[in-house]
User: Fold this.
Amino acid sequence: MSITLPLRELRRNPNRFLVATIVLAFLTTLLLFLGGLLDGLYLGSTGAIRAQKADAIVYSASARDSFLRSRITPDIRADVEALDGVSEVGGIGFVLLGAQVPGESDLADVAVAGYELAPKGVPAPPADGLGVADSRLQDQGVSKGDTILVGPAETPITITGWVDDTGYLLQGSVWVNLTTWRAVQNANRPDSAVADGVVQALVVRGAPAAGSSLSFTAGLDAATDGATKSLTVADAVLALPGVKQQKDTFNQIIYTTLFVVLAVVGLFFSLLTLERIGLYGVLKAIGATTRRLFLGVLVQAIIVAVIAFAIGSGMAIAAAAALPASLPLQLIPSRFVFTFSGLLVAAILGSAISLRRVTKVEPASAIGTTS
Amino acid sequence: MSVLEMTDVRKVYRSGDIDIVALDHATLQVEHGEIVALLGPSGSGKTTLLSIAGGLLTPTEGTVVVNGNDITDHDAKELTGFRRENIGFVFQSVNLVPFLNAEENLLVVDELGGGKGDKAAKARARGLLDELGLGHRAKNMPAQLSGGERQRVAIGRALFNNPKLVLFDEPTSALDTKIGAQVMELIHSEMKARDTAAIIVTHDRRMTEYADRTVEIVDGRLGAAGLQTAAH
Ligand SMILES: Nc1ncnc2c1ncn2[C@@H]1O[C@H](COP(=O)(O)OP(=O)(O)OP(=O)(O)O)[C@@H](O)[C@H]1O
Ligand SMILES: [Mg+2]
Assistant:
């Protein structure tokens, strides 16, 4: 089935499609921006947890899924370690602080993260006083070899290397061993000091014990007699403060914007179809099927959407480059794929609104009507 | 064999609560290569008859046979294919595709028939335009052509598929007298050169001189000439 006619019209009369293309290009930019902010917020907030290679994160029961409120004592840890099916257990703890960076006047926001089991991309825990930093701290002037002074107590940590995508609540993580983490915590947050052997949460690897009817996480909580609350990594990510709310809010705006795209395509092409009723009558009279004419509308809607996406993406990329790096905007390939798919679906559904009108054009309308 | 045989055709339009009988027991036969003028006052049913003959409308009663195909009971989809392959249409008002040049307007027919606008199709479009005196206008857009030239392009489009029957609905009513006469002249010579039958609807008696036979229609009823064939 040939589509010469709709393509020729696009090429010969591009002005006719200009306004719709521009509007859709701006909506594309808006969609990418909103999505980029969501992705930036989400990725920057959750990296340190997403990077965990774990089958469960174990908090104390009273912590309401918050690391900062959670404390796991050595005897609870022993209960977890004793459970059938548990293969590895590591402590983890975070503390959010400002850090002085050599040569920088502003404090850098850091999340000092103590760990035992290495997350994705992070080496085994370094020696006392050393840390592996998240690469987002480079934007705040941190260099390899720098000794940063953390918190009001100015606890020194020397940066020995970089890891990517391990942000915690939009702060760059500095991965240290548990001893260093406790030293930082106790010097800078004396009101919530931790004793030796105490951690905030446990990173646990394993599988449900053979014959157990409970899930792995439920089994862990049963083993500690309800002293713990365990989550999968995915649930732990969503339990981070604000993450789920951000996601829901942004997604609502994004889907509303996609609906606007649908309305724009639908309105534009149904007006165009209305203008073409006379022409469609003639084409039907000389042997064009409804199917062919509708396919023409569809092809034009898709091409307009593709061009608008290309322009809108370019504008979003240019705008993102021009904006200050402090904005948590992150344009990732999957966001472009999602936006492109959304635009295509909206173009197809939007042009489908014209199908009824194209179907209703009578071939006999071509004849006998005085213009 | 007749190109068109309409027998006892009746067409009733429903408009609200009232029925309008636009055609009543119309019987018309058109022979191969014959040019018939259909003459009648406004509202007499000329367009309705032409639409039924060309498969644009289906009759309420009666039978329609074109080129030996009985199209009386064809559904909309079958009629679309039938029109594409068997009938040429030239309408009253300007009806070219506005964003295609003269040559491409002819090639639309080829494309609708599944063609790819290949060399042979292009050569055929060029040949037709030359014949119609539009060789030098092949690349012009409809908006750049005069009314008479546009109607000649429409004639080329109607002839592109070599139909056995071409239907004209007041082809010159939008043109001034002189240009209208030229277009009628051209229609006559083209039909005769190709041995193609035509029905030309008009309410202008002067136009009947270009036809082999004139059939009059009044209030949906055809005059006696509908049955007989005049000598050429
Ligand atoms: N779609 C329709 N619905 C209702 N009535 C119609 C319709 N089309 C035509 N008619 C009526 O049928 C009758 C014949 O109409 P038709 O268009 O065939 O006449 P015509 O001879 O072509 O007229 P004209 O010279 O004005 O073009 C008229 O009374 C007209 O009002
Ligand atoms: Mg008429």
In short: The CA atoms of residues 44 and 270 of chain A lie 43 Å apart. Chain A touches chain B at residues 2, 4-5, 8-9, 12-13, 278-279, 282-289, 292, 363-364, 366-371 (CB under 8 Å).
